[in-house]
Every structure is written in structure tokens, then in C-alpha cells.
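Before the break, one more example. Copy the sequence into your notebook; we will annotate it together after we see the structure.
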Amino acid sequence: MFKRIFANRYGIDQLSIFLMILSIGFAFSRYLWFIGIGIVAYALFRAYSKNFSRRQMELQKYYNFMIKLNMTFKRIFGPITTKIKGFINKSKQRKHYKYIKCRYCSKQLRLPKNKGKIKVTCPECKNEFITKT
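Here is what the structure looks like once it is written out:
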């Protein structure tokens, strides 16, 4: 059935699906519902269009925008997620390892637990000190 409807037409792509989902968000708004209708109309226009090259250009612009958006989110939230993952990893290893800071350069070191007094060499500043684990 859909093959006959979309014969020689552009059809539905990821941009059209995104526009439909976006229009649902506007549909529940009390004052902006008409924008949702306009977005649905544009998505349907894209699906029934015979101008393949123009629709492909729009789709490529959408992909480029999403890549830039993804890179922006990674730049903003990347350090935060790295810290969260580090904290989770550290909390899982607390049973077997003790975390201390180097007395000279403040680099964090991971030492095995329950080994008594051990001689520690900092990999950053190469200073040696004795600590209890």
C-alpha cells in the first residue's frame, strides 16, 4: 500500500520523523499548537515531494546540524560525565584499593589495601615516601 502512495515520491526519512516528533511537542502547547500543524504540513510536503535533490540537501543540512549539536554537547557535558564515571569507578574499587594524594605534587595514587607500610614512588614527580595502606 505504501509503495503505491509513495511511488516516484521522496518518502519518509530521518528529518521527516524528527519533524513529526517535534510537532507532537507543540501539539500539547496551549498557544503554539498551530506551529505543530505547520511542522506536520512541512513533513508531509517533504514526504510527497518529487524534488529528490532538494530533499537530499535538506537532509544533509540536518545531519550536519546534528553532528555540530552532538559535538557541542560532548564539549559541554564531556568533562562532567568523565568525572561521574571516574567517581563510580573509584567507588567500585574502594574495596581493594586505597586512594591517596602524593605529598609533593598532589597527584592521586591508587594503592592496594591491607599491605601495611609500603614505599610509594609517585609516577609524576618520582618522589618516594612511606605510607600505610
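Residues 96-133 form one domain. Strands lie at 97-101, 108-112, 117-121, 128-132. Try to locate both features in your own notes.
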